[in-house]
Amino acid sequence: MKSFRFQAFTVKDIVFLAVITAVTLLAAGPFAPIVMTASKIGPQAFAMALPFALVTSIGLRKVKKSGSLLIIGIFSGLVLLLMAPVMFFNQFTGSLFSEGLALLFFKNYENRKAVLMSSGLFAFFTLPSTAVVNILAKGKSISEQIGNPLTFILFALGAIALGLIGAMIGNKISDELQKAGKM
Amino acid sequence: MHMCKETRDIHPILLLVFSLLLFVMGLLFVKSTWFWMYVVTFSVLFLLFRFEKLMLKLIPFVLAFGLVMGSLTLINGSMQDALYAIYRVLALGLAGVLSMSIRPIHLVRALNQLCVPRWISLGLLIVIRFIQIFREEIKRIRQAIALRGIRFASTPALWSRAFFIPLTVRMLSISEGLATSLETRGFSTDSAGSSFEVICLKRRDLVFSILFLTCLTVFAYLFLRGH
Amino acid sequence: MSCALEVVNLSLSFDFSEGKTDREKQWVFKDLNFKITEGDFIMLTGHSGCGKSSLINMINGVIPHLKKADVQGDIYIHGHCVTDSPVRERTKAVGSVFQNPREQIIFDRVADEIVFPMENINETPQRMRDKLNALLSMTGLLADAQTATLSGGEKQKLMTACTLGMGQKILLLDEPLANMDVRSAKELLELLKRLSDEEGYTVILSEHRQELVLPYVDKVFFCVKSFDENVEMTLEIRDNAENYECDLSSLPDRTSRKKTNVAADAEPVFSVENIDYRVGDRALFDNFSWQINRGDEWVILGENGCGKTTLLNLLFGFVRPTFGSIVSPYNKKRNKRKIGYVLQNPDYQLFMPRVKDELYLNASSPEFVEQLIRLFGFEHMLERHPLSLSEGQKRKLGFACIIANEPEVLFLDEPTVGLDDEGMEQLLRALALLNEKTGNDRTIVTVSHDKRAIPYLGDQFLVLSHCEPYLQFCNNKTPPTSELPAPMLTERAI
Questions:
Q1: CA distances in angstroms from C451 to C253, C456, C492, listed in the order given
Q2: Residue among B25, B20, B50 at smallest CA distance from B38
């Protein structure tokens, strides 16, 4: 029977997740100007979706323990906290929601679809927290942030699609390295 | 007995909290006539507390980033909107002076003292350190790709393969080596460990906090009063 | 002296095939037995991939607690059986120093890195301060130095200091001298010898470069091929002082090689003209000039961090000189493909799904690839994933992939590191094969620390050094036989 598994994280797990976070932040680095300059919500998630999903999915294939994505979210949030404090909430809630949803459906990461869902939806789930932070910090209403609803929907769907594509590529790389005995 | 050294560094947790407050308040003030007063006041405070080196380092970033953000806003918005966009970058830069002055090791030790699990603070350190390591790794991988004569423009799929497979292999091998090294150096996720240095509140922290909070309260009052 | 470490009937296997009995399994080693007395300084040596690191990792508990393996037998440390103790327990008695210190350092200040293991074992701040001061004076490191700016040798010293801070009296060092220049290596060896002689530390050091370590050790544990076909290696314990230099007399005689270019009409392929190159505040090259002609075979020698790899990168064009220029027909983008550059770590250059794909990608002629396959013995592994190969095999494959393109100019960065004598011989034969194909017009520039290979890798030597006017040339057939950095070869030959 499937069940939630909360296993203790070993030093090896923590180190790998930290290394994955470092690479995730680097991979997303080139998109940072888009993320930080976009005045509407949607483009940020769209720009970050592919690199985040690709690298985090490799992390989840290696450390298949519940809470792995949340740890990546905490680590990246803590680093971003030193640069732009509000980014912490963005990363934390994104990882919390996407991992929560994936585990609700699949219970654990043994199924690669769980990895696909968790990593693939990470960027999309940063949208709610970005909206809340914008309301609280910038005083922008939801309608102001969304702008043209059609454009917003396209960006949101694009973020999901790119996230899933990134996660699929990450899964493929993991499969190959698993076959080579590296994972 | 733990000794608290009188250093020039402000307590890292204070810096984090103040940075957050400064950024949020800065965003609220963007459209206010007091914005420049806000920027000047806190800049003077930072200069008094010897943050000048970091301020100088951040100026090019703020200028470049501000111009990009302003230009992008100008495409769809008015001149006024572009100006506000630049002000937002300025607010971010001002908050960044505080948060980026934190030495990671001080933050880690302060977090440990607040009973934050050691694996979180260690993870934070690894992320910070390994961003630089992997920047070099990525450079080497790109050089290796060039050496095999592969170009993204002509064979994007092969280029991506030649990039991601070695990158993943390096992630695996570096993390395995580091984990083994940490374990053989006695690190474990369930032990609290001791601390070489105690990060405590000093007189300098108190003076800085009083001045910072006083300024912030005045500006909060001005904001609430309706500028 | 009492016994520090005892190994009883120790066996190791990574063969997890189902249904195999112990007799049918492939073992790395089987039924090893040895005792090491307190204060002994032991060198563990043998060819690459023979199981030296595995033995060290079994003693410190990394195998089987962090790396899965089938382990039998018992290990006793100071008389206590530790076979089932996890790494954390064993670290109380055994300290370990690994390769690649750059990838193990997590703090930006030397002092923070050294006290980190002490914090892990709950030392008091006062004790940490005392130990820190002692370790700093012992290693010559500065407390406030930035770890990122340390040289490779200093980083290795730092990792050794971290281990010493924990106070274990048994030290295991897994190829700590790899990629270290002779001076740094000797400094580290002297430190270990002092600890062993004066403070009773038991030191087990795994290393390829026997000639460097032999003068310091009491015993040599030599990993030799086992007579049992199901067991890869066994240990031969010898009492120091014998010379185990490898015999490479069967190699092709390089001096008989005829060059098509003679000095007078030699075509320059790289003219380095008064270049300056700085890394931060440090000048690596200052008004440096050099000329490489077609058909030349240069070996660049020198201390760690003195700019050997940087020089290759400057020649290739990965980095540009701060001042001055490097004139070469290969500066043009379309000519770059005629340069082959074998990186030190093959992990960067291998990415295809099969060994076969890797070899044929960019290969100039299938016939030459087939010759290389036979030479390196890749016949039975063509369908395997390149990353599933052993480290030595990966290095040979990385090398073969580059030369399969039949480059006009070949840059080799430490091509023989981690290769056993047989692997080195294969590599040198492949180079000879490459030369045969092009009438000896191939230009080869090699960076190497490996004294076994240097005589066979080139006939002109460029010695880079921090301390002296940084370079000297020698154009003898005989390479510098003295220790690096050579007591300065004085003949300027170009």
A1: 17, 10, 22
A2: B25
Q: Is residue A3 part of a domain?
A: no
* Distances, alpha carbon A57 to alpha carbons A20, A91, B160, C385, C436, in Å: 10, 16, 16, 22, 48
Which B residues, 101 through 140, put their C-beta within 8 Å of a C-beta on chain C? 103-105, 122, 125-126, 129, 132-133, 140
Residue A169 within any structural domain of the chain: yes
Q: Is residue A137 part of a domain?
A: yes
**In Å, how far from its chain's centre is CA C272?**
29
- In chain C, which stretches have pLDDT less than 70? 1, 47-49, 178-181, 240-265, 280-281, 303-305, 439-440, 466-494
Asked if residue C343 lies in contact with residue C398, where contact means CB atoms within 8 angstroms, the answer is yes
Using DSSP's 3-state secondary structure scheme, residue C271 falls into strand
B174 in contact with chain C, both atoms CB, cutoff 8 A? yes
Domain that holds residue A71: 11-179
Position A177 pLDDT exceeds 70 = yes
Q: Which one-letter DSSP state was computed for residue C365?
A: -
Tell me the β-bridge partners of C233.
Answer: C29, C225
Q: Is A131 a member of any domain?
A: yes
pLDDT tens figures, C401-447: 999 999 999 999 989 877 877 888 899 999 989 888 876 688 999 99
Q: CA C430 to CA C438: how far, in whole Å?
A: 13
Q: Which residues, other chains included, contact B42 with Cβ-Cβ below 8 Å and sequence gap of 6+? A: B22, B94, B212, B215
Inter-chain residue contact C341 with B191, CB threshold 8 Å: no
- The CA distance from C87 to C96, in Å, is 11
